[in-house]
Amino acid sequence: MKLATIRVATGTCAVRVDDTDAVEIDASDVGALLAKADWRRIAEQADGARHSIDALDYAPLVPRPDKIVCVGLNYRKHIMEMGHPIPEYPTLFAKYRAALIGAHDPITLPAVSENTDWEGELALIIGERVRNASEAAAERAIAGYAICNDVSVRDYQNRTLQWLQGKSFEGTTPLGPWLVTPDESPGPSRELTTLVDGAVMQQADTADLVFGPVALVQYISQIITLEPGDVISTGTPAGVGTARTPPRFLAHGNRLVTRITGLGEQINPCHQASL
User: Fold this and answer.
1) How far is CA 204 from the centre of its chain?
2) C-beta of residue 4 within 8 angstroms of C-beta of residue 22
3) How would you write 158-202 as a 3-class SS string?
4) How far apart are CA 268 and CA 148, in angstroms?
5) Given CA atoms 146, 67, 105, 77 in this order, what sign does their dihedral have?
6) What are the backbone dihedrals phi and psi of residue 189, each rounded to the nearest 5 degrees, phi first?
7) C-beta of residue 87 within 8 angstroms of C-beta of residue 62
8) Cβ(214)–Cβ(138) under 8 Å?
9) Is 103 in contact with 174 (CB distance < 8 Å)?
10) Out of 18, 33, 130, 275, which residue is the most buried by the measure of CB atoms under 10 Å away?
11) Whole-prediction pTM value?
């Protein structure tokens, strides 16, 4: 099953995305839907207004998550290109929801930096409350998977040892277009591709993750209770702009495309903000 949050005349609405159209669900967005204990039944049985898939205006998949937890240095090849050892524990940082945009929305390149970088990532969305999860409970808590691009402002990120300031610029992080439930996206292996103006920048198999989705839910739930609608972005593979020689960053007019097999694609034009 595929779920999305779309913009409609009255605001936003959760929809079930079928083969040719999307069916409205009685929830304002996917996060609000997941807060319902029987969200799977509600989504499966929904029979609201229908929209052509070609005409959907995607909002951020979960517009108001309680938490966005991101993972750094989690692909073996990316860790090698950055010159770091394989970590013993996940590297975690937070992102604020004001950073989130829809799958086709423009990315706002900050006026204060020319070092904005792409980071295509597999995201997972939590579907039930979980704390100190066992492996089985962690797997059960994953409502589905989605695409995220953890667009990063590198000069701000590297000003200190703490990365948050480079990760939470407003209007920079596309999340969506869909949540795809695990039964339709099985197994650890999915091809992730990031393109800038049609040129492939990142291409990797998500099986290269050091810490996979279930392990991340287990680990993070030891620290804090995960709630329905929470987002965990699992890290980016090799091919980021800052690791290139010379470094390359996003510029006004670029077209950033992020794809993951079975999860759709994001297409985001880049626009430079003015002070």
Assistant:
1) 16
2) yes
3) CCCCCCHHHHCCCCCEEECCCEECHHHCCCCCCEEEEEECCEEEE
4) 12
5) negative
6) -100, 115
7) no
8) yes
9) yes
10) 33
11) 0.97
Partner residues linked to 153 by β-bridges: 116
Percent pLDDT > 70 in the chain is 100
- pLDDT band of residue 274 (cuts 50, 70, 90) is confident
3: buried, middle or exposed (CB in 10 Å: 19+, 13-18, 0-12)? buried
Query: How confident is the model over 188-207, as a mean pLDDT?
Result: 96
Both tokens assigned to 124: 């997972």
Q: C-alpha distances in angstroms, 70 versus 52, 102, 129, 254?
A: 33, 18, 18, 25
CA gap 92, 94 in Å, rounded: 7
Pair type for strands 142-149 and 255-260: unpaired
> Do the beta carbons of residue 107 and residue 91 sit within 8 Å?
no
Identify the three-state secondary structure at position 221: helix
* Whole-angstrom distance, CA of residue 30 vs CA of residue 120: 21
Q: Are 142 and 125 in contact (CB under 8 A)?
A: yes
- Residues near 246 by Cβ (< 8 Å), separated by ≥ 6? none
Please, which residues bridge with residue 50 across strands?
23
For residue 219, give the amino acid letter. Y
